[in-house]
Amino acid sequence: MAGALAPRSCLPKEFVMLRRSALRGVLGMLAAVLAALGTQTVTPGVAAADVSVAARTVYYDASRAGEFATNFHQAAQIWNSSVRNVRLQAGSPASVTIYVDSGWPRAQVTGLGAGRVWMGWQAVNQGYDRTRIATHELGHILGLPDRRTGLCSDLMSGSSAPVSCRNAYPNAAEAARVDALFAGTAAASRAVTAVAGGYTWSGAR
Q1: How many beta carbons lie within 10 A of that of residue 162, not counting itself?
Q2: Active site residue 174
Q3: Among the options 14, 67, 137, 174, which is catalytic?
Q4: Tens place of pLDDT for every residue, the chain, 205 residues?
Q5: How many CA atoms lie within 13 A of 11 on its CB side?
Q6: For the sheet containing 114-120, what is the strand order?
Q7: Which residues contact 76 (CB under 8 A, 6 or more apart)?
Q8: Under 8 Å CB-to-CB from 156, ≥6 apart: which residues?
Q9: Separation of CA 154 from chain center
């Protein structure tokens, strides 16, 4: 009908206001959820950066290791692929110096990540694997003592394993121990003091 007024809403005013208020609340909750998801997405990146910063670099000098320098570089790569809290790198200032002589391989540990290592021709001439020896001796520098289990799977078993053993990789327990030592706990510091000293491939400490 001409001139008729448009129908007005039959809903009470109070109901309309309540509905608008509820809508605003839902939108607010949605914004909060999205913000939380955004924070969770960023967090892993921050954590990864923290792990990277925490890793300690131990520099070594293999310039005196003669033809065995390559074996020590390989040994460093093996440790770097096995642990996350420390990195072995050729360079200076070196806290680890590597030598070669006619005796037995050995390590003189002066602190966690510090000391001297000798690659000895006596073990090489008997047929022991060069890279296994190098990785083993660097294991002492990283805080591990000898474990004469006789098992080839144990890097720190040293010469107690058969001469034919070619395994140059630390097992899971050995790698975990190095990571724990370089995590910097008080217990680890006491353990480092306990293992400081001299180790020889052919015999007990």
Answers
A1: 13
A2: no
A3: 137
A4: 445 544 555 555 555 565 566 666 656 666 555 555 554 433 344 343 344 447 999 999 999 999 999 999 999 999 999 999 999 999 999 999 999 999 999 999 999 999 999 999 999 999 999 999 999 999 999 999 999 999 999 999 999 999 999 999 999 999 999 999 999 755 555 555 555 667 776 643 3
A5: 7
A6: 86-90, 56-61, 96-101, 114-120, 106-111, 197-200
A7: 60, 88, 89, 90, 138
A8: 136, 139, 144, 145, 146, 147, 170, 174
A9: 19
CATH fold, domain 57-200, is Collagenase (Catalytic Domain) (3.40.390)
The label of the residue with tokens 């720190």 reads 156
Tokens for 12?
């009470």
State the Cα–Cα distance between residues 186 and 48, nearest whole angstrom: 24
Name residue 146's amino acid: D
H/E stretch holding 61 reads strand 56-61
Task: Name the amino acid, one letter, at 71.
Answer: N
Q: Which two tokens stand for residue 157?
A: 């078993």
Here the tokens at position 11 are 């809903």
Q: In degrees, to the nearest 5, what angle opens at C-alpha 183 toward C-alphas 179 and 184? A: 135
| Assigned token pair, 31 | 């914004």
Contact 205, 198 (CB under 8 A): yes
